[in-house]
Amino acid sequence: MRPLRWLAIPLLLGASCAGWSCQGQIGNPGGTGEVGGVGGSDGLPANAPVSFECDEAKVPDAVPLRRLSNVQLRNTVRDLLERTLPGDAEAIYTGVETTLNGFPADTRKGPEQHWGGFTRVDQSVTQEHVDRDYDLAVALGAALTADDGRLSQVAGDCATDSDGSNDAACLDAFVRSFGERVLRKQLSDEDVTFYQRPAGSAPFDRADWADVIALMVAAPNFFYMVEHGADEAVSGKTDLYPVSAYELASRLSYHFWQSMPDDTLLAKARDGSLFDPDVYRAEVDRLFEDPRTRLTIRQFYSEWFRRADLAQLNTLVGTAAYDELRQDFDPSPNLRQDMYDEVTDMALYYTLDTPGHVEDFYRSRKSFARSQELADFYHVPVWDGSGEPPDFSEPERQGLLTRAAMVATGSANTRPIMKGVFIRRALLCDTLPNPPANVMATAPEPAVDATSRQVVENLTGTGICPDCHAKAINPLGFATENFDALGRPRDVEKLIDLVTGEVHGEAPVDTEVVARVNPEDEDVVKDGIELQEKMIESGKVQACFARAYFRFTFGRKEHVGKDACALDVMHQPLEAGQPIQETLRVVALSDAFVQRNFGDR
Amino acid sequence: MKVTRRHVLRGIGGFTLALPFLPSLLTSSEAKAAPPGAIRRFIAMRMDHGGLGSANMYPDDSMLTEQMDYAGHTIRRGNLALGDMSGTARISNVLSAAGDKLTAALAAKMNVVRGLDLPFYIAHHRGGTLGNYGDSDGQQREYVPTCDQVLAWSDKFYGDLGTILQRSAVIGSGSMSWGHTVPGDPNSPIEPLHSENSSLSLFDQLYRDPGNQMEQRKPIVDLVLEDYKRLRDGNRRLSSMDRQRLDSHIAKLDEIQRRLGVTLSCDGVTRPTEDSADLQRNNFLHNVQSHIHFWSLMNDVIVAALSCDTTRIVTLRTGDMWGEGGATGWFHETPLEWHQEVAHKWFQGDRQQILAESNQRFFEYLFVDLMSKLDAVQEADGSTLLDSCLAFWTQESGVHTHDPIDFPIVMAGGAAGWLKTGQYIDYRNRNVIAHDGKGENDSGEVTHVGLLYNQFLGTVMQAMGLSPDDYEVEPGGGYGYYWEETATWYPGYQKYPASVKNVRGEVLPFLKA
Q1: Mean pLDDT value of segment A523-535
Q2: Within the 514-533 window of chain A, which residues sit less than 8 Å (CB to CB) from chain B?
Q3: Which helix (H) or strand (E) holds B77?
Q4: How confident is the model at residue A499 (pLDDT cuts 50, 70, 90)?
């Protein structure tokens, strides 16, 4: 998925506020410890932990071998071509791009549908994956051997000279070297013999070579991250093994670069030096400093902070209610992506360009708008991507929650419930149960005489609704109701009939709430800026950062009990006030990164 | 106009298809491989939500001219009649279309069925339409493969896979079709199949150029398979979950290997120049014309695939307008947010009107468009491609959004003579009320419980040539699990007597020819 099952949940959740089953209050601790369920163990909302208790006796769950994500697969193909046939790499890549595009798209999967989810967690393997993987292998085999010139560069002159007597040795050497690169392991003699089989007996023609290459690209070690572990189990742990040197090289490379190990990393795996702690740390640093890591971290943030309910902002242009709201503002089809990018650029700036902290995300007054349209929208100069970004001129804008991508909807009305759910689930990592089955899910709809907040309050103010909505969800969304559905600051809300576009007056917005970031906190906050201070103060945003990055790193949902040691490793730098990038780097030094539980065999 | 198999199908997507490329379908070997009437095809369509009022969805009660006692209550049927209003042929408000498309001949090949329910609450779901009732947002229950995937892997349904490139084509918004990761292993996990939104990709999956295949060297797929098996069965350390994952991959490689032996029965196929996926990328959601175009492109590929017998199973789902890149639309230009402001407001008159318009367009531009195209392809014996099909369109919910009571079902095709068609059938028990129409969020429409949807899907499976032993998870249970609802608020709570439960393994009355 897409995987589409998770898509229905947010709709239901946002719509079903009239009947939340959370009759208790937020605050029951963590349920079973495994996120991804429907609330705590008793079906009530679960208050996320703000620290992680590492118990060395606990072992992370065994998980099945991971496949490469679509991004990783594309990068691997590109890098493989660059290193095998640099002159023709781009042309060959273009030639196989249709096949690559045919792989099913990875969808964001998180503990609670897409909230806090990442495409790396999507580990589905459908028939189409296998079909395209096979097609890709055949296509690459053919492309790399399309003529003698290419084959000669790929396998050496021995592959194309007129001397057939050297073909067997030529093929043997090629399979060993190319195989190490493409399969990310040292091939055994048995492997070498196996991968030569399509060629038959020497002398070999180009078609023989093509089949050999195709067989290696179609191998399980290419599409999956196959791991067998080292010979000896971790002391005292029956099923827990350190990964091998090649496996570790792959883990490092695919985590930071989303691609295959380079020759340097492979060499350190080959000679075993990667197990030397100093060498390993140096390799972690080397990979982290590489520009490819920036792209990886960009993906991490862009997926984490992407609100799925933000529609393209030009879609409803020409409809009465939307036109009434936007007046002469004419959003282009690119504006939504610009808004998404602005948030991602903000996070990258505080992560890689400056030694920033998670707290900066929620306090920054700088604009990272890189398009003229978004910069105009913010009334600031365009940021060129380097140097000091300009400050917002609008006093309402401070911190992540006030940026356009966090408050706009692309429709004529704001969605306080959806904003609240996003904050609760994706940014605080609290667990919200799904609504009770017997709820007739009806949406809040702007009334002619009420603000969006009033409509939501009325709708969720009776029965069993308030326990969850009034305490856990709505206030988080109300706090930024001083921004309209396009993401513009406002003091008053224009009361627009959604169907006719008729304006029935206006009413002052009210952003004052008891946010209950922690369930016991009854303090009043006056707006989104103060809400963010509460979020920082709670410690939840720091802990949630560690949890989100765990999912991204390991491609699976975390268990706050069994994965506490790894989470603690990532959380400690944040807690200690170290820059964010230390957490991103230090994950590679955790035991979880270098070990694997093989569980039941 | 009838298009014989010797004519060229011309799709709107820029491709043509000559049928067949072989000298004749009437050669003895061809006739033996595919005797007329023997091949059955399955098409299932589903639209998200539901909430269509009876007055919009169904013909007038006066069409129900016959009745009989069954399962403890009276059920009804009558012949479908087609009204004509200024060039629009009409069965009901929703079931209406241009008169040159919805013809009397086509209506005679349809059935409109109501009064089929799930006895338990399912809320939002996807797989429930084809029997995986566990795939529900309301309550997590046990999963089973959807019935289309049972067909896809049934030797009875696919007696001969000689032309089949894809056992099933799954289209549109995802998670309607579910299958085992290792189809032959009932202990393997059950996952949704990939769903295709690109008509061009679908075309590529359902065709390949036979000429190129002839020129290929011996494929290496057998060695790829061997590679996976030597890893799976080798002595290097793997977890049981690793092996399960490899088993799944091996099963899919087996399928690739099987396909290499396929001989296509079509030639002259020109790859389309237009792709439905491109439409989705361009302001798609509120653009009715784009939706119509999108599904017309898909329908062309479906018709061609069924004509060439490269698949016999098609499932498609429209919905998920918030899907990132996966939305397949609602056939309506309303600026209102569909899920919350339209579908969940089904009980409001203006929103019901939007739902009716949306579903009418689905009916005309997807359902009727596809059925009329299928009916235009004539088989050697004078029957049409549609005659070999059992196609049906239903919704996520019944009259009330979220509640699986009184699913509307529109069928077409005779399943190669198995089905009786041209009927309006009502299985409701009019003495037992489900919704009283007096709820806070209610339209005032009273609904009644009827027979079980499990029975409908079981009937479908038998129409496709399977026996109950081939598909039942519970003896005499129809298709899929049966659960007693324990929530007293459910409008169907304790309203399905033993007389209804006990017949769910039977073929539904009125439907068997």
Answers
A1: 98
A2: none
A3: strand B73-79
A4: confident
